[in-house]
Design brief:
The chain is α/β, with parallel strands linked by helices and 258 residues long. It folds into 2 domains: 8-141, Rossmann fold (3-Layer(aba) Sandwich), CATH 3.40.50.2300; 155-255, Beta Barrel (OB fold (Dihydrolipoamide Acetyltransferase, E2P)), CATH 2.40.50.1020. Helix content is 26%, strand content 30%. It has helices at 16-29, 42-52, 68-74, 92-95, 109-122, 131-141, 197-203, and strands spanning 8-12, 34-39, 56-60, 80-85, 101-104, 155-160, 163-168, 172-178, 181-186, 190-193, 209-213, 216-219, 223-228, 234-238, 244-246. The strands form 4 sheets. Strands 2-1-3-4-5 form a 5-stranded parallel sheet, with helices on both faces. Strand 1, helix 1 and strand 2 form a beta-alpha-beta unit. The longest helix is centred in the N-terminal third of the chain and has 14 residues, at 16-29. It starts with 7 loop residues before the first strand and ends in a 12-residue tail after the last strand.
């Protein structure tokens, strides 16, 4: 009788908290799966897979030094690949061909369970070289199929007391820089992150979030009204929050009709 071998995997993502979340989700969905290594970039992932020879590698698409697509090319045929991605539109069509699986950030338990179910069936055969798939993904990521969509933040990892929360950007009313932290305000609670406003400006969709002050970013559809204070300066009121947010002169053009 053939002895069942423990399936193994490597996780590659430049965000430590995302790696921890994926590991936790995998433990729930597939307790028998052994995580034999974690990498913070594509080069580390390639080295880990070649040295530890896992059955599966989970690759974030956006990583420094070597992205997930380049890492997958280097590892073609060596391990079954699951891409971890924030793209929910233009690259998913390639994944749906079935040569590899994918997880959208943040990794939801139901989606991880589905990926694990598919992977169990694939372990019986050799990993697919994925040549055509990787070529298509590379073209899409390079904008070969049209204008290159930006990979905007869809959620943030924030601390609420001693708890880590995964907060969708659609739930966030505004960000406000305070001392060494940036406050994340929702209708129900506030949280803290270490990412500065200047980085958030680059990572958030400008159609959804406007900077109104060097220390404040607001979600546009959360604005309830804009008024002027006794000094004649514009003040924004967002729904679900009593706090008033001042608009600096540099950004007063956003509300030209006032």
């Amino acid at each position: 009788m053939r002895e069942e071998r423990t399936p193994t995997a490597v996780i590659a993502d430049d965000e430590r908290l995302m790696r921890e979340q994926i590991v936790a989700r995998l433990k729930d969905a597939w307790p028998e799966l052994s995580i034999v290594g974690e990498a913070a970039n594509g080069r580390e992932a390639v080295a880990l897979v070649r040295s530890r020879e896992p059955d599966i590698v989970f690759l974030d698409i956006r990583m420094p030094e070597m992205d997930g697509i380049e890492a997958a090319k280097a590892l073609a045929g060596l391990a079954h690949v699951v891409f971890v991605t924030a793209y929910d539109e233009y690259a998913i069509g390639a994944f749906e061909q079935g040569a590899v699986d994918y997880l959208l950030k943040p990794a939801e338990p139901e989606r991880v369970a589905l990926a694990c179910q598919r992977l169990r069936g694939r372990l019986e055969r050799k990993p697919d070289p994925m040549g055509e798939l990787l070529a298509e993904l590379s073209q899409r990521l390079a904008g070969g199929g049209g204008p290159k969509p930006r990979d905007y933040l869809r959620w943030v990892q924030a601390s609420v007391g001693t708890t880590l929360r995964m907060i969708p950007t659609g739930d966030i009313l505004f960000f406000r820089a305070e001392d060494k932290y940036t406050r994340v305000q929702t209708e129900g609670f506030e949280a803290l992150i270490r990412k500065p406003i200047k980085e958030l400006v680059e990572e958030l969709d400008p159609d959804e979030f406007w900077q109104i002050h060097r220390s404040i970013l607001i979600r546009v559809d959360a604005v309830e009204h804009v008024s002027r204070d006794f000094r004649g300066r514009q003040v924004v009121q967002v729904r679900g929050c009593a706090e008033k947010l001042e608009v600096s002169r540099s950004f007063s053009h956003l509300f030209r009709q006032m």
